[in-house]
Write a structure and sequence with these properties.
- The protein is mostly helical.
- It has a domain of 87 residues: EF-hand (Recoverin, domain 1).
- The protein contains seven helices and four strands.
- The strands form two sheets. The chain has a two-stranded antiparallel ribbon with strand order 1-4. A two-stranded antiparallel sheet has the order 2-3.
- The longest helix has 18 residues.
- One calcium ion (CA) binds next to strand 2.
- Keywords: Signal.
Length: 125
């Protein structure tokens, strides 16, 4: 379970990085903490919309593409209907956020984000 969540975060971060080569700070208001709203604004919304090529509100394996993307999205499909809905992606992101928020203050500090990134790097296949 933990690996799946970290993989989602890795995908979202990787997708964001691909779209924004200069990198983007998820801390939109610059207060040093990433709230759930800021986290959700960064992921999964942006990468979800990009992957949902036909705009029907769900990502199929074909839309996710071949390779690691297809395997990852199959695992996000929690109800096993062959498509990842935005709700499924958001639920996975929310769980990722909760797992990363070590002190449970509802926001990710710089330290918590660094920790999350380190976990993603270790968990990467
Ligand atoms: Ca679609
Ligand atoms: Ca599904
Ligand atoms: Ca926190």
């Amino acid at each position: 379970m933990k690996t799946m969540l970290l993989t989602l975060a890795a995908v979202a971060v990787a997708t964001s990085a691909a779209a924004q080569p200069s990198g983007r700070n998820p801390d939109a208001d610059g207060d040093g903490k990433v709230t759930m709203a800021e986290f959700q604004a960064m992921q999964p919304g942006r990468f979800f919309d990009r992957l949902d090529k036909n705009g029907d509100g769900q990502i199929t394996a074909a839309e996710a593409g071949d390779g690691p993307g297809a395997r990852i999205f199959t695992r996000f499909d929690t109800n096993k209907d062959g498509a990842v809905t935005k709700a499924e992606a958001e639920a996975a992101a929310a769980q990722t956020f909760a797992a990363a928020d070590l002190d449970r203050d509802g926001a990710l500090s710089e330290e918590e984000l660094v920790n999350l990134r380190q976990q993603m790097q270790r968990g990467r296949p």
